[in-house]
């Protein structure tokens, strides 16, 4: 092919994305024109993405997943797109999200802030804007971070939703993010979450003291095949773990946390009391 341009996937994340599009296309024996028909974009745009002359969009990545049969899998073009455009996300988190979208059970423990899956858009936006002010991300990355989280939430709205168990350190509801109006809407969202048939919400009060097994974020997933995995974060790094020898102790500790934490009724009452205080 005379005009075929050699690609270097190592040159940049965009180059890796483009090279993967070409590799997938050629594995199916499709020309750029044939792929353009299937994806609903111009062949020139496909050529541009493959050679990094043009940027891919989220719509493009999702269309590629449909065409190449990757929807619902872990290694999607959509995930790769998010990794390119959300460089501020900690290592391991985009991969975790891929598994989360397929999980049958999700267990969350968070300190300081409401877990992402339970955040309102306004609460998320305040956190993202704050990251911009600190110089951690660009305004564009902040906007993409908000949309990334909202998409995560939407992925869990399905015919057979996962069971979601959330234990929040009391600091999550005591820390004011964005002012009274934002917190009032966020408290309403937590109460709504607690009322759903497939969810559980508990607060781990400060009074638990040394009985609290975790001091930082811990997420646990149970997949449809009953395998389990964990995701934990430090200030600068995220880690996804699928080794039973290290994941099962976290699962046991989480069950103990649920036993010691306030009941859902007590937790909702605590949130409602705080909500009255900001009304």
Fraction of helical residues: 40-55%
How many β strands by DSSP? 6
**First-residue to last-residue Cα separation:** 69 Å
CATH C-level of the largest domain: Alpha Beta
Quaternary state of this entry equals single chain
Number of helices in the DSSP assignment: 12
* Helix-strand pattern: HHHHHHEHHEHHEEEEHH
Query: What is the number of domains?
Result: 2
CATH architecture descriptor text of the largest domain: 2-Layer Sandwich
Topology-level CATH name of the largest domain: Endonuclease, Chain A
Q: Could you say which structural class the secondary elements and strand pairing correspond to?
A: alpha/beta
Tell me the overall shape: elongated
How do the strands of the widest beta sheet line up side by side? 3-2-1-4-5-6
Task: Give the amount of beta strand, in percent.
Answer: 5-15%
Could you characterize what this model shows?
The chain folds into two domains: 13-83, lambda repressor-like DNA-binding domains (434 Repressor (Amino-terminal Domain), Orthogonal Bundle), CATH 1.10.260.40; 92-118 and 158-278, Endonuclease, Chain A (2-Layer Sandwich), CATH 3.30.870.10. Helix 1 crosses helix 3 (43-50). 29% of the residues are buried. It starts with 12 loop residues before the first helix and ends with a helix. It is of the alpha/beta class and 279 residues long. The protein has helices at residues 13-27, 32-39, 43-50, 58-67, 77-85, 93-100, 121-133, 139-155, 170-174, 180-194, 244-260, 264-278; strands at residues 105-110, 163-169, 199-204, 218-222, 228-233, 238-241. Strands 3-2-1-4-5-6 form a six-stranded mixed β-sheet, sandwiched between helices. The longest helix has 17 residues, at 139-155.
